[in-house]
Specification:
Blueprint: H1 3-8, H2 27-40, E1 58-63, H3 69-80, E2 84-87, H4 101-110, E3 115-120, H5 125-132, E4 138-144, H6 150-163, E5 171-175, H7 182-193, E6 198-202, E7 218-220, H8 223-227, E8 232-235, H9 252-259, E9 274-276, H10 289-292, H11 299-321
Parallel strand pairs: 1-2, 1-3, 3-4, 5-6, 5-8, 6-7, 8-9
Bound molecules: N-carbamoyl-L-aspartate.
Length: about 325
């Protein structure tokens, strides 16, 4: 993320226009978004919050990579704010016929789609599109290669804050394929901005991240150091689709024994530590199924928070849009 990409996210009045990355967003903006998201949550069993703040607007979901949670939650978030939501079926779209991504975007722009939610496997695509769209259009990054997944970072931050808001005195451990994880990247950026006490990134050496991309984090190759007295343990999937060469990646049993998040390995963490996972989960590989289903797990809470966070982002962007 270049410095000018950070500027690109804001309109001339300093309001958030595109959400491309959490890098360089300040703690007051992150806190405002979390507070707004919190306001959209309702008690279990109650009907979801609805408003008309996006009435008349159109949100287009363009997912050029698989997605369940992110896509469904952007869809619901848009509808619950009164927007029309267009879910483009990329498998039957003209991009399969060789149309460039910009031509697809211009086509939707001509249909008065105001907010485009984009997931793509290549670096830089959301910022590239943001540079080319008309002034009335906003771009939201829903997952960019291994670089950025800002709404996931926000929902993770909200889930952690609900457990303990004292970021400065907490240790968060993220374990798994850190090297290929946009989830780890966005969560780390958000946690560092909030002044997290300790951020530990744990992975087998073959999946270790480039330390320069995670300033201030402690990078270790074992859970004994990584999980000790942690307040939060987040498990990540091995992103095989981004790994060219599987040499050096442990087999399933070895991986689970050394890096699996389980009732056993969680004994290293604090007794009240929570377990997170962005999904999709591979039970028995990076996480023990029984632990994922236990009261320690906040995985379904993350999903609920994901809708609220996306409502907060859409609502804010929509309000700014109506002033342009
Ligand atoms: C993640 C993603 O797509 O980056 N999932 C998600 O958005 N909840 C993580 C993954 O694919 O492993």
């Amino acid at each position: 993320m270049e410095q000018d990409d950070t500027k690109l996210q804001f309109d001339p009045n300093g309001n958030l226009r595109h959400l491309l990355s959490l890098k360089n967003l300040d703690s007051s903006l992150l806190t405002e978004l979390l507070d707004e998201a919190e306001g959209f949550l309702t008690a279990p069993g109650a009907l979801p919050t609805r408003s008309r703040s996006l009435a008349g607007r159109t949100v287009g979901n363009l997912f050029f990579e698989p997605s369940t949670r992110t896509r469904a939650s952007f869809d619901l978030a848009g509808r619950r704010l009164g927007a029309d939501v267009l879910n483009l079926d990329v498998n039957t779209s003209s991009r399969k016929k060789g149309e460039s991504i910009l031509d697809t975007i211009y086509t939707l722009e001509a249909m008065q789609v105001d907010i485009m939610v984009i997931r793509d496997a290549s670096d830089g695509v959301p910022a590239y599109i943001a540079r080319h769209v008309e002034d009335h259009v906003s771009i939201l990054n829903a997952g960019e290669s291994d670089v950025s997944h800002p709404t996931q970072g926000l929902l993770d931050l909200l889930t952690i804050r609900q457990h303990n808001a004292d970021f400065k005195n907490m240790a968060v451990a993220i374990v798994g394929d850190i090297q290929h994880s946009r989830v780890a990247m966005s969560a780390s950026q958000a946690l560092q901005t909030m002044g997290i006490g300790e951020l530990r990134l744990i992975s087998p050496p073959a999946l270790a991240p480039d330390a320069d991309k995670f300033p201030g984090a402690t990078i270790v190759d074992n859970i004994t150091d990584g999980f000790r007295d942690a307040d939060v343990v987040m498990a990540l999937r091995i992103q095989r689709e981004r790994i060219g060469n599987l040499d050096g990646i442990p087999g399933i049993d070895e991986y689970f024994a050394n890096y699996g998040v389980s009732h056993e390995s969680m004994k290293l963490a604090k007794p009240d530590a929570i377990v997170m996972h962005p999904g999709p989960m591979n039970r028995g590989i990076e996480i023990e199924g029984a632990l994922a289903d236990s009261p320690r797990s906040v995985i379904t809470k993350q999903v609920t928070n994901g809708v609220a966070v996306r409502m907060a982002v859409l609502d804010r962007i929509g309000k700014v849009m109506s002033t342009r």
